[in-house]
Amino acid sequence: MKITNNSVVVMHYAVSDSEGSLIDSSYDDKPMTIIQGSGYLIEGLEDALLGHQVGDQFKVDVSADKAYGERHDDYVQTVPKELLQGVEDLTLGTQLRASTDDGEQTVIVIDVADDEVTVDGNHPLAGIDLSFEVDILEIREATEEELEHGHIHGEGESCGHDHG
């Protein structure tokens, strides 16, 4: 069976940046299970999976525009610290939810000064070309319920949706 949209795919992966530094890997843990075409994966990797079958091992390079997008300098903003009153942890790397013109967005604290905080709304991997190593372990058709809910249901597992 080849991977098509609405296939459930079980796979191991490792992802590195363009310098070869490992960013993430599933090989030392459980494999990832996704519904192909659901938008769970970045576009470039999802496109690369199509047509592969169980046992395939392959590498694919994904440009930033097909991964987490290009960096946008205007997503970096410095705001008065007083606007963040009540936030207990204002250290580098802290993730905050912010209301923007485009709705709720996660921003990351990248600088803390005496009276202001700089946050970055770019995804941490924005602007970075990625390289994936992929190992396809299983493929099956998604059930109607999985497609309706947009995620995988394990055997005997409740997904928290009201099925009554």
Structure description:
The protein has 164 residues and is mostly beta strands. It folds into two domains: 7-68 and 126-149, Roll (Chitinase A, domain 3); 73-120, Thrombin, subunit H (Beta Barrel), CATH 2.40.10. It is 8% helix and 38% strand. The chain contains two helices and nine strands. It has helices at residues 43-49, 144-149; strands at residues 7-17, 22-25, 32-35, 57-62, 76-80, 95-100, 103-112, 116-120, 130-141. Strands 1, 2, 3, 4 and 9 form a five-stranded antiparallel beta sheet that branches. A four-stranded antiparallel beta sheet has the order 5-8-7-6, with no helix packed on it. A hairpin with a 3-residue loop joins strand 7 (103-112) and strand 8. The longest helix is centred in the first third of the chain and has 7 residues, at 43-49. It is elongated and about 60 Å long. The two termini are 33 Å apart.
Summarize this entry quickly.
With about 160 residues, this protein is mainly β. The protein is built from 2 helices and 9 strands; from the N terminus they run βββαββββββα.
Q: Stretches where pLDDT falls below 50 for ≥5 residues?
A: 156-164
From the N-terminal CA to the C-terminal CA, the straight-line distance is 33 Å
* Outline: elongated
CATH C-level name of the largest domain = Alpha Beta
Mean pLDDT across every amino acid position: 89
Radius of gyration: 19 Å
**Helix-strand sequence:** EEEHEEEEEEH
Total discrete domains: 2
Second-tier CATH architecture of the largest domain: Roll
Helix coverage percent of residues? Answer: under 10%
Number of helices: 2
Number of strands: 9
Biggest sheet architecture = 5 strands, antiparallel
- Percent strand equals 35-45%
SS-derived structural category: mainly beta
Would you give the CATH topology of the largest domain?
Chitinase A, domain 3
